[in-house]
Each structure stands twice: as structure tokens, then as C-alpha cells.
């Protein structure tokens, strides 16, 4: 075995079905008396439902969270935090709501309880990406890491199939890149392989029956493991490409990850053979890039960046930007090969 360094993030995780009923207890454990509940506008009803579990500890609900954590929304939410003199945050939703909670915690150090309802995994990381003036800036800080995660499988049953698929593959992307990360280590790799396998076996069952609680539990468990991977080691080419494309063209987060991942894996496949063997095993065999492409396509995901909103003739600019301040990657970044990669993803063709 090679030498390694393993950094664990602290955190308390409650996992299961019906676990939302423990929200009051968890708030009490944190000593919270004045909780602000956060959500997107679409999940305002769900936020009201779960607020009931907090009883008299609820100070208010702020349901204007948005994708990519715009700083003006955070500033608006901060006024509510101050007006209510909130002493804790409960974020219910996907990465967008979790992002708002993290942005407030970064500014106030308030404790956070996150109730994730997608597979984005943000709840398990000390990372925050905020947007201001069309630029997304990422920071990492211990204040950003949520204190408690309450995973309630029941709250994921309403996640539409299309978003379940792309959100699940977004999670797989965290684990894939953790396997070939510069800081890879045996513990995180174990979680990564288990996370990929849990999600890959759950997604077809969720597509067949979105109310399948066993499959939903597998997917949520896998999403947690993949989120831990994202929060523990550095990411590589795939995340750099998605960060670039998301920032330049405001493409939808999880669908964009789904369309890019098979191509990033193909690009790195020869440079990271041991990781590829583990990805293949987790996916049930086959060449990993093609297996990921086939899985996503079979589940109905849109595989063309053009169809997701990437403008024509923009590959060159995207490659230039991705190569500036590049992340570490197992294979050196080569302009021609990256252009070919993005051209394939633009058209939605299979990885080469
Ligand atoms: P999202 O949070 O934007 O959710 C998409 C939509 O689905 C929203 O309208 C949401 O309200 C709705 N939704 C969520 N769960 C639902 C449910 N169970 N039932 C019905 N509707 C539901 O999407 P996402 O993909 O989870 O998050 C994307 C954002 O998270 C991006 O801004 C991304 O940058 C960020 N992110 C950050 C990290 C990190 O570590 N910092 C990690 C992953 C993602």
C-alpha cells in the first residue's frame, strides 16, 4: 500500500425513513431556540411541513433559495436572519438550498441542520460556490460545513425521475474523481466505489418506480458517500470543465455533469487504470466511460451540451478557460484532446 493522508470532516448523520420527526431533538441538541428554515420557492410547502417538527423553535421560513447561490439572495436572507435574531438554520432541499444555508453560516457561523432532498452531496462538504456579477467563486471554510445532516428517504420520493437520474450521476461524478484524485486514499476510495455502486443499481429501479423506497434509500446512501468523497479530496478535469461551462453558459448543474462525465472519464482512462477498474466494478463491468454513457442514456438523460444550452462555436473559448488555473488531473491537459472531448459532449456522441 502507498503512503497516504486521510482528512475526515466532522459531522453527525441521521439516516432513514421518517427521520424528519427527529428534527426537534436535533435542534435541541444544538441548543437552538430560534430556527430559520430555508428552501427554494418550489419547496416552500415542504419547508412548512417540516417546520412543524420544530414546534416553538421556528422563527420563520425563507423560501427564496436559487441555483448557484447568488450573493444578492444571500444578502436578502441575511436581513431575515438579523431581523429574527436566528440562532440556527435548517435547510431543506437540494444543493441550491444547502448553498444558501452555507452562505449564511459562512457569514454568521450559525449551526446548520441540512435535510437533503436530491443527491447533490453538498451537505457533506465545507465548500461553497457563490455567484456575483456572472462569476462563480468557490471557497472552503470549516464554518461552511453543516453540523448535522438528516437524511429522510421519504422526502426524496417526490424528486422527479429526470432530476433523480441526473442528480444521481452528478453524485457519481464526485466519487469517480475521488478515485483518481491526487489526495486519493483507501478510505475515501472505499466510499467512492460503494457510492457509485449504490447509485448505479438504484437509478434504474427509481426510473421504473419512483416510489421504490429501497431504491430511494440506496440512492440517498450513495449520494452521502459521494458527497463525503467530494468534501475530502480534490476534484479534477471533470469538475473543472463543469465549473467552466456552468459559469460561462449557466447550464443546468446536474444535467451538465451527466453529459460531461463519460467524456472526462474517457480522457483520463489510460492515466488512471486502477481507478478505472474500480469504477468498472462498481458499475457492474464494462469500459467505464461507455458504461456511464450507456447508463445515463438508457435512463433518458440528455447527453448533448448543445441541447442543454451551450452556444454554437463556443468549444474553443471553453477549452481556453478550462486550461487557465487548471485543477490537478491524472493526465496533462492537452488543448486538442480537450477540444475533441467537448465537441463530442456538445453533440451528445458516445465518448471516444
Ligand atoms: P437544486 O437544489 O437546484 O434543485 C433543483 C430543483 O428541484 C429545485 O427547484 C428544488 O426545489 C427541486 N427539488 C429538490 N428536491 C426535490 C424533491 N425531493 N421533490 C421535488 N422537488 C425537489 O439542484 P441540485 O442539483 O441538488 O443542486 C445544484 C446546486 O448545488 C448548484 O448550484 C451546485 O453548484 C450546488 N452544489 C454544490 C456542492 C458543494 O459542495 N458546494 C455540491 C453539489 C452541488
Topology diagram in text:
Layout: E1 12-16, H1 23-29, E2 35-38, H2 44-51, E3 58-62, H3 71-84, E4 88-93, H4 95-108, E5 112-116, E6 127-132, E7 135-140, E8 148-152, H5 161-179, H6 186-208, H7 213-232, H8 237-249, H9 253-268, H10 273-282, H11 288-298, H12 315-323, H13 335-347
Parallel strand pairs: 1-8, 2-3, 2-4, 4-5, 5-8
Antiparallel strand pairs: 6-7
Helix pairs in contact: 5-6, 5-7, 5-9, 6-7, 6-10, 8-9, 8-12, 9-11, 9-13, 12-13
Domain Fe-containing alcohol dehydrogenase-like C-terminal: 165-346
Family: Belongs to the iron-containing alcohol dehydrogenase family.
InterPro entries: ADH_Fe/GldA, ADH_Fe_C, Alcohol_dehydrogenase_Fe, MAR
Quick one: overall form? Answer: globular
Radius of gyration: 19 Å
Total number of distinct structural domains:
2
Helix content: 40-55%
**Arrangement of strands in the largest sheet:** 1-8-5-4-2-3
Q: How is the main sheet built?
A: 6 strands, parallel
Strand content: 5-15%
Number of helical stretches of at least 4 residues: 13
Any idea of the CATH topology of the largest domain? Dehydroquinate synthase-like, alpha domain
> What is the element string, with H for helices and E for strands?
EHEHEHEHEEEEHHHHHHHHH
Cofactors, ions, other ligands: nicotinamide-adenine-dinucleotide
Structural class: alpha/beta
The CATH fourth-level homologous superfamily of the largest domain: Dehydroquinate synthase-like - alpha domain
User: CATH class of the largest domain, anyone?
Assistant: Mainly Alpha
Beta-strand segment tally: 8
Domain Fe-containing alcohol dehydrogenase-like C-terminal: 165-346
EC number: 1.3.1.32
Organism: Rhizobium mayense
GO molecular function: maleylacetate reductase activity
Amino acid at each position: 500500500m502507498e503512503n497516504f493522508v486521510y482528512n475526515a470532516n466532522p459531522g453527525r448523520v441521521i439516516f432513514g425513513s421518517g427521520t424528519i420527526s427527529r428534527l426537534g431533538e436535533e435542534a435541541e441538541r444544538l441548543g437552538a431556540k430560534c430556527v430559520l428554515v430555508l428552501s427554494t420557492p418550489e419547496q416552500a410547502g415542504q419547508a412548512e411541513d417540516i417546520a412543524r417538527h420544530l414546534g416553538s423553535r421556528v422563527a420563520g421560513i425563507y423560501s427564496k433559495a436559487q441555483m448557484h447561490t447568488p450573493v444578492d439572495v444571500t444578502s436578502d436572507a441575511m436581513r431575515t436572519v438579523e431581523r429574527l435574531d436566528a440562532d440556527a438554520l435548517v435547510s431543506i432541499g437540494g444543493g441550491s438550498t444547502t448553498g444558501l444555508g452555507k452562505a449564511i453560516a459562512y457569514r454568521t457561523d450559525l449551526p446548520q441542520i441540512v435535510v437533503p432532498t436530491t443527491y447533490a452531496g453538498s451537505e457533506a462538504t465545507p465548500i461553497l460556490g457563490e455567484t456575483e456579477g456572472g462569476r462563480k467563486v468557490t471557497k472552503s471554510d470549516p464554518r461552511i460545513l453543516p453540523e448535522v445532516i438528516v437524511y429522510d428517504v421519504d422526502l426524496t420520493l417526490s424528486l422527479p425521475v429526470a432530476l433523480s437520474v441526473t442528480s444521481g450521476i452528478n453524485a457519481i461524478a464526485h466519487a469517480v474523481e475521488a478515485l483518481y484524485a491526487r489526495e486519493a486514499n483507501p478510505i475515501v476510495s472505499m466510499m467512492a466505489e460503494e457510492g457509485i455502486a449504490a447509485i448505479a443499481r438504484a437509478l434504474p429501479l427509481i426510473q421504473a418506480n419512483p416510489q421504490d423506497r429501497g431504491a430511494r434509500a440506496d440512492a440517498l446512501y450513495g449520494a452521502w458517500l459521494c458527497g463525503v468523497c467530494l468534501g475530502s479530496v480534490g476534484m479534477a478535469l471533470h469538475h473543472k470543465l463543469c465549473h467552466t461551462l456552468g459559469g460561462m453558459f449557466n447550464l443546468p448543474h446536474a444535467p451538465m455533469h451527466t453529459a460531461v462525465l463519460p467524456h472526462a472519464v474517457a480522457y483520463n482512462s489510460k492515466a488512471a487504470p486502477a481507478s478505472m477498474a474500480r469504477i468498472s466494478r462498481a458499475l457492474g463491468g464494462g469500459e467505464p466511460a461507455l458504461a456511464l454513457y450507456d447508463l445515463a442514456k438508457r435512463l433518458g438523460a440528455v447527453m448533448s451540451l448543445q441541447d442543454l444550452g451551450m452556444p454554437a462555436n463556443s468549444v474553443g473559448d471553453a477549452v481556453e478557460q478550462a486550461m487557465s488555473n487548471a485543477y490537478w488531473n491524472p493526465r496533462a491537459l492537452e488543448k486538442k484532446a480537450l477540444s475533441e472531448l467537448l465537441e463530442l459532449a456538445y453533440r451528445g456522441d458516445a465518448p471516444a
